[in-house]
Design a protein that fits this description.
The protein is of the alpha+beta class and 239 residues long. It has 2 domains: 2-97, 2-Layer Sandwich (Phosphorylase Kinase, domain 1); 103-229, no CATH class. It has helices spanning 49-70, 115-139, 153-159, 165-175, 204-229; strands at 2-5, 17-23, 28-31, 37-41, 79-84, 90-97, 103-104, 184-186, 192-194. The chain has a 6-stranded antiparallel β-sheet. It has a 3-stranded antiparallel β-sheet with strand order 7-8-9, with helices on one face. Helix 2 packs antiparallel against helix 5 (204-229). The radius of gyration is 18 Å and the shape is globular. 26% of the residues are buried.
């Protein structure tokens, strides 16, 4: 268990110390001491209080849009706090409920599921894809339904380096599919829930290409979900 201490956690923890749960492309993810909350931090976005307030505003607006896109069954509520870290930078903390015993789709052993369980997962994923495609048609944007993970802060930083660009492109186009998502969690009651509501912080051309490719990959994933429902093998390893 990795423990991190930083005054940025002061609004939600008395000793400013939290357990790290994991991370993605840009985000470090922690859990509150009482186990009720997940705290997300993007340290590279730190700056002045005014800058942090604008970041929080943009993040909340995107999260509200993505939650409306997917509907209440597949979305989580998010709260936003601003606090100063040990370098004196204002940072945005994203607070979400911790989903006890939920697992990412990437960790599911689909071969061990019953036909009924496969059918229920497939039904929800087809609906999530449908909603994301409708949202894309109207906004030319969409939530990140895939995600990545890192075992440590150092690994997350290595994965973000220029040397890893070919690996990231290969992972983006080939390795990752919706059935191996890190951002979609299967809750104990059987609901599939999106836990990441980040926006793509790049230029217009990059965003157009990125979302256009995602649009095409959704059609591939629809076929993979259908094959899984019929008992087919899911590409990639559970983990």
């Amino acid at each position: 268990m990795a423990i991190y201490h930083d005054p940025v956690f002061a609004p939600i923890d008395l000793d400013h110390t939290l357990e790290r749960l994991g991370g993605g492309n840009e985000t470090e993810v922690y859990r509150s001491d009482d186990g009720r909350w997940v705290i997300k931090l993007k340290a590279q976005l730190g700056g002045s209080a005014a800058q942090a307030a604008q970041v929080a505003h943009d993040m909340r607006a995107a999260a509200d849009e993505f939650a409306a896109c997917l509907g209440p069954r597949a979305s989580l509520s998010s709260a936003y706090l601003i606090a100063r870290d040990q370098q004196g930078h204002a940072q945005v903390l994203v607070i979400q409920p911790f989903l006890e015993r939920a697992i990412p789709l990437a960790a599911i052993d689909y071969d061990a599921l019953s036909r009924e369980q496969r059918a229920e997962i497939a039904c929800q994923l087809h609906e999530i894809i449908r909603r994301a495609l409708v949202f894309y048609r109207h906004t030319r944007s969409m939530p990140d339904l895939y995600g990545r993970k890192s075992s440590s802060s150092a690994e997350r930083q290595r994965n973000a380096s220029l040397l890893r660009v070919p690996q990231r492109v290969w992972s983006f186009l080939v390795e990752r599919n919706l059935l191996r998502s890190q951002n979609l969690m299967l809750s104990p009651n059987g609901d599939i829930v999106l836990v990441d509501y980040d926006i793509v912080r790049r230029g217009r051309l990059y965003r157009a290409v990125y979302f256009g490719v995602r649009w095409m990959l959704f059609w591939r994933d629809n076929m993979l979900v259908w094959a899984m429902r019929e008992g087919g093998t899911v590409p990639g390893k559970a983990g």
